[in-house]
Amino acid sequence: MRLLIIADTHVPKRAKDLPAEVWAEVGQADVVVHAGDWVTVGLLDELESRSRRLIGVYGNNDGAALRARLPEVARAELEGLRLAVVHETGAATGREQRCARDFSGTDVLVFGHSHIPWDTVADTGLRLLNPGSPTDRRRQPHCTYLTATVADGELSGVELHTLPPR
């Protein structure tokens, strides 16, 4: 099972649309995971129509229309892998311990908010992933997104992709 993991798209405030490379990944993914800050319902509608399966949450920049359609926390089992998605996890200091406590029984936690790519493992084995942003790099050198594979309850092949300047 191929995953595309994105967050903090901020369409249309930071970009008019997702980059073509990301749309190409949507077409190849079995599951698209979006960790919030969509900004517009139009992007949710388009991702729903173009994705085989979409798992998403709302972020702090998402208004009432998005919050009515998306949860604050999403949980899914993907071929035995226990996935949770949330927009914000708080400060980087102590993140692994906090998330291991708050998301016990989870194998992988996808989050956004910071626009900073993140890939760590808590003492409990919980893997924390932040894909950065494909549209708003903030203080990062590149816009980014993640892809990964799930098979037999295991996450593998996690790859951070950088996008060319727009």
Supply the key terms.
single chain, 166 residues, alpha/beta, Purple Acid Phosphatase, chain A, domain 2, 4 helices, 10 strands
What is the CATH superfamily classification?
Metallo-dependent phosphatases
Number of E strands: 10
CATH architecture: 4-Layer Sandwich
Strand content: 25-35%
Unreliable stretches covering 5 or more consecutive residues: none
Shape: globular
Separate helix tally: 4
Quickly count the domains: 1
Please summarize the sheet with the most strands.
5 strands, mixed
- Strand order within the widest beta sheet: 3-2-1-9-10
Give the fraction of residues assigned to helices.
Answer: 10-25%
N/C terminus separation: 30 Å
Structural class: alpha/beta
Order of helices and strands: EHEHEHEEHEEEEE
Descriptive report:
This protein is an alpha/beta fold. It has one domain: Metallo-dependent phosphatases (Purple Acid Phosphatase, chain A, domain 2). It has four helices and ten strands, in the order E-H-E-H-E-H-E-E-H-E-E-E-E-E. The protein has helices at 20-28, 41-50, 64-69, 95-102, and strands at 2-6, 31-34, 54-56, 73-78, 81-86, 108-110, 118-121, 127-130, 143-151, 154-163. It has a five-stranded mixed sheet with strand order 3-2-1-9-10, with helices on one face. A five-stranded mixed sheet has the order 4-5-6-8-7, with no helix packed on it.
